[in-house]
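Data card: per-record layout.
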Amino acid sequence: MKKLYFLLLGFFLSFVFFGCETNNNVSSEENTFAGVLVDEQDIPIPYAIITAVKVSEGKTNILVNEQIVFVDTTDEDGNFELKNLPSPLSSIKLKVEHPDFKPFEDFILTFLEKQDRKKLRLRVLHNDDCCGLITIKTLGPDSAAIGNVEVRLNRGKDVIRKGKTNDDGVITFERVCAGNYWVRIAKEGYQVIEREFGLENCDTLNLVYVLQHKEVDSCCNGVLKVEVKNKSNGEVLNGALVKLRKNGTLLTTLTIKENQPVYFRELCPGTYSLLVMKEGFKPVEREVTLECDDT
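The structure for this 295-residue chain is written out next.
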């Protein structure tokens, strides 16, 4: 049995946050919206900032003020949620910010004309100088194509895009910005591949990776359970992001949903770092060491 600050019992982690929220606008739970942010390829965009602002006009309909009413950051799958926006919705504008993409803004009613408020799909465009092309092909030990392989394109510690190879073992990322990247390639039953590479401006890369069958490791069945709560009232913080890293490498990011904890499975022995983030709260980071098959 192990214990850490914020309650750790048998690797059950309960993160507790302090935070404060103020909102002088009258809002309604009916004015809650959710959706996904995607790029030109319809690939979800992680870690973009979506801001809802209330637009005020003068007597001559000239914009005189913009008041921020809600801010959210898309998760690893591009999902976002905007809660309890004030009425009237005709005065609410959405703004999207991400260093790889052109600034985007439009009134929320524009999206509601043809979309469900809980299934919005917002599309933004890359910056003009993001013109690289990366094609990745995954093969097996017999040189046959392997499909349904998860490919994560990372820059630094953050995932930039992710997707799965098609039946021909191919995935293509278009309009990629110049920079230093690394990919993580994974499929159940195969060894994980991680490789670094650089991409010049408007460069084209064709990368081929051969996956090897995974050797059975009886010690890599560890499970880590994480629960995130607000210390001021004990409520579960839905929407909180939980990032799991090992040796500085981001392994995966999970999101607290429906008042339920998240589980990290198939973990090998070693020391892991957990970073928990939630808009309006101070991030919390903790380390935990797992032994063989700890749960």
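Known properties of this structure: The two ends are 10 Å apart (CA to CA). Residues 40 and 86 are 31 Å apart (CA to CA).

See the next section for split statistics.
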